[in-house]
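SEQUENCE WITH STRUCTURE:
===
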Amino acid sequence: MTVDYKTYDGSATTNDNDYLAPTGTMTFDIGETTKMVVVPVIGDTKPERDETFSLGPVSAAGALFDRTPARATLIDDDTLPEVRVAGVALTEGNAGLSTAAFVITLNHSWKQPVVVTYATRDGSATAADSDSMTALSTVRQSIQDACDYAAQRWSQVITGDLPAVWDAQRGVFLDDLRITVQEGLLGGGDGPGGALENAGPDEFRAGTTGLPWAASAGIDPFDASDSQLRNIVLHEFGHALGFGIAGGGSPIFYSQHVFGDGFVGTNALREYRSLFGNAAASVPLETGGGAGTAGAHWRESVLTTELMTGYSEARGVAMPLSRITVGAMQDMGYSVNYAAADAFAASGRSSTNGQQSRALGGAAPPVQSARKAATLLNGSTIERRRLSLEATRQPILAYLAPLMESAQRSSASTPKDRIFSGFAARVAGATTEPLSTLAWRALRSA
């Protein structure tokens, strides 16, 4: 009697080098009842969940057989160490400085360097009361909590590892994404009532479709108490992952799926069609709001409160991370879990209780994103969010935008290039002056 057999991937896969997949035929001689198939399992030092694969018969000659495969479980033995900090007590004295020496330990040794970033946190003793000096600059607790939530939420959606890269800053290999968060917008500026936050990738993996491995996000401290802070940070971390990122030398993981005013990635489009019950050619992208909003978000008028539209919502209004966004992440190259998506209905604004999204140019501006800066001829920088202009400023932008490409390709030797270069320099350094004033000065100085 002969039996053909093969293996089947589960959470353990051959593509991830978890095991080698034998296929073949075994023969039972007369009187034999037991045979063994040996499957080579590949060891690694990567902390991960226990994983499974299966092996089963495909066909048998001379006997009946059960088609149900048998499962093998690979038990992970690479448990990450825990960082522990021992408390300390000391007498503060009547004057001067004394030091509190905290001992930081690992509960077991590890195969790679372990980098620990630490900070002090006020208790009944506070730095403001001159009880202590801050050991490391950090962001306020509301921002830390929002970042922790956003990282955990995206980890539920994006489940697979990425090609490892060496992070020289941390001294470790990364198979995911490092996001550095600062209090204050990337590039500086803003204030009450301005942009809420900005974010974008800094470093990409190799190749034309290489996904990010390092990114930055900046949160305006004036908006750190915003009622939608968790969703705003979640949105920006989506941009740090690469959603909406195109141009500026970045890989084409997103832009290759953009055609006209729509996103045509197979998975996002399938989910959009299923949700809206149509045969649309693409998922509509935002066309308003200027650079940094247009083309980098789902269209607000269609997907309304979905997380990756370009507008934040009023207090209490949900901003669901839908299967459409999960599909877009899969189109970009991530391994995803659709079961982690939020419920989202194509039903307009019935869930907002009459409250409207916060519109661009009003007291509560849109969530701004895209790459954090574009370098100009004179070496200064201008945040793309500064080009996300309200409707009253669009005529100025319409005049100056065609000058951008020529100004970036040349040495600002023509009158038009000098106009744009002067205008850009003024915008980069301005905080409150109207753009019309800055443009007029640039025209006069050219």
